[in-house]
Design goal:
Elements: H1 2-29, E1 55-60, H2 66-80, E2 86-93, H3 99-102, H4 105-111, E3 116-122, H5 125-129, E4 137-141, E5 147-151, H6 164-173
Parallel strand pairs: 1-2, 2-3
Antiparallel strand pairs: 1-4, 4-5
Length: 206
């Protein structure tokens, strides 16, 4: 009887481990909501677009652990493509929040990358203009403001390493043909219409 009971406990434990691993796998490889970003740089945008040079924007949640890997990939991208693109990381800032709410270690990491400017996006105004919904979403526009790339630069949540997004942007900035122009974005949601109060729309769940 004792042996059977131990076997039963072992089976239950194994099942729980399998379920946990399965849940983690689904979480890591489930992308954020697909966004249909503008094919041309929004005329209402206050983000400067440098004429004669491509412009890259990453939209980010300042408290999203998943985005740490995206910023790391951006750093590698900028090292390879020095002086060939103007880049910004636009951080969501809820209405009424303090400056230090937005200027986290993710902000400091982004701002430290040569060629990258970090800026706050109060109430997600610019994020909405570009119709982005997920932290870590990257858009690349050419010198004339035409969309070249739209998507993520990691292969799963919080995962660093070679990926289709970073490769595509690198090829485009090298004036080569990219295999893809759209990739899934793995990150936390930037907006939550169900949430109320001064930090409405600021969502990063783990």
């Amino acid at each position: 009887m004792k042996k059977h009971f131990s076997a039963l406990l072992a089976a239950i434990w194994l099942a729980a481990v399998c379920i946990g691993l399965g849940t983690l796998w689904v979480y890591e490889y489930t992308p954020g909501q697909e966004a249909v970003v503008p094919n041309h740089w929004p005329v209402q945008s206050k983000i400067p677009h440098t004429q004669g040079q491509p412009s890259l924007i990453m939209f980010a949640h300042p408290h999203c652990p998943c985005t740490r890997a995206s910023i790391g990939e951006l750093s590698m991208l900028m090292t390879h493509c020095q002086n060939r693109v103007k880049a910004r990381v636009v951080f969501f800032q809820p209405k009424g929040s303090a400056e230090d709410w937005t200027q986290t270690d993710l902000w400091r990491s982004a701002a430290a990358i040569p060629g990258v400017t970090a800026q706050a996006d109060e109430e997600g105004t610019e994020t909405r203009r570009f119709q982005v919904t997920t932290s870590g979403h990257v858009v690349l526009y050419d010198a004339d403001g035409k969309l070249l790339f739209n998507g993520g630069i990691t292969s799963s949540r919080g995962h660093s390493g070679d990926n289709a997004g970073r490769s595509a942007i690198t090829h485009l900035l090298d004036h080569e043909t990219a295999d893809v122009s759209i990739t899934p974005v793995f990150g936390c949601s930037l907006f939550d219409p169900k949430q109320k109060g001064p930090e409405q729309d600021a969502v990063c769940r783990h």
